[in-house]
């Protein structure tokens, strides 16, 4: 009788922990707004548009970050957390951009044109992130609160930028040997 009660108690406790962890996982906001999600969904078969959207959304997060940090109305107390959150949103969007590039490469789509814009954006993103990292006017205590996510973001962008440049060369070579699907040239929609 006691062992049955212990098992029930253990099962109930496990169920509560599972529910609590699912609740915490759901609380993490999607970095895209509903309007942005709709735009991405509408461009699902068009690599050029879809990759351009992710670049735009990532750029928007960095622009918001710069605006927030330079706004005198932003509370000094809230600024580190807002910086962290915007960097995290940028990183999650940038990761999604990379996932989409991988998908198009796996399908052997011709993404040379949108990839050129991604490489240009990489350079811009690196400059903005490095400027934030080397900002002299940031108190050390504040910088500590978002240092990890900033370092992680900068490392990801640096590595991805190098990968994107190599990929550009590989795609040019593949195009010369006609190894890319023509579907991407025709807006990527299946026939």
Please describe what this structure looks like.
The protein has 7 helices and no strands. By secondary structure, it is mostly helical. It has 2 domains: 1-30; 31-184, no CATH class. Helix 3 runs parallel beside helix 5. The longest helix has 30 residues, at 147-176. The termini are far apart. Mean pLDDT is 85; it is low at 21-27.
Number of helices: 7
Biggest pleated-sheet summary: none
Shape: globular
Structural class: mainly alpha
State the end-to-end distance.
66 Å
Beta-strand content estimate: under 5%
Cα-atom Rg, whole angstroms? Answer: 22 Å
Sketch the topology as an H/E string, one letter per element: HHHHHHH
Question: How helix-rich are the residues, as a percent range?
Answer: over 70%
Instruction: Count structural domains.
Output: 2
Average pLDDT for all residues: 85
Q: Can I get a quick summary?
A:
With 191 residues, this protein is mainly alpha-helical. The chain has seven helices and no strands.
């Amino acid at each position: 009788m006691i062992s049955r009660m212990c098992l029930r108690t253990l099962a109930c406790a496990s169920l509560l922990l599972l529910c609590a962890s699912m609740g915490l996982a759901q609380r993490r906001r999607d970095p895209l707004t509903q309007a942005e999600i709709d735009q991405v969904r509408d461009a699902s078969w068009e690599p050029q548009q879809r990759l351009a959207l992710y670049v735009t959304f990532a750029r928007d997060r960095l622009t918001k970050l710069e605006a927030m940090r330079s706004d005198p109305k932003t509370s000094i107390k809230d600024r580190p957390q807002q910086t962290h959150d915007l960097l995290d949103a940028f990183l999650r969007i940038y990761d999604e951009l990379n996932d989409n590039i991988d998908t198009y490469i796996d399908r052997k789509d011709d993404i040379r044109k949108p990839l050129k814009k991604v490489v240009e954006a990489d350079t811009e993103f690196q400059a903005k992130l490095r400027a934030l990292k080397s900002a002299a006017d940031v108190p050390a205590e504040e910088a500590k609160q978002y240092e990890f996510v900033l370092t992680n973001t900068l490392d990801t962008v640096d590595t991805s930028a190098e990968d994107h440049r190599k990929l550009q060369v590989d795609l040019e070579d593949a195009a010369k040997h006609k190894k890319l699907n023509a579907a991407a040239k025709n807006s990527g929609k299946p026939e």
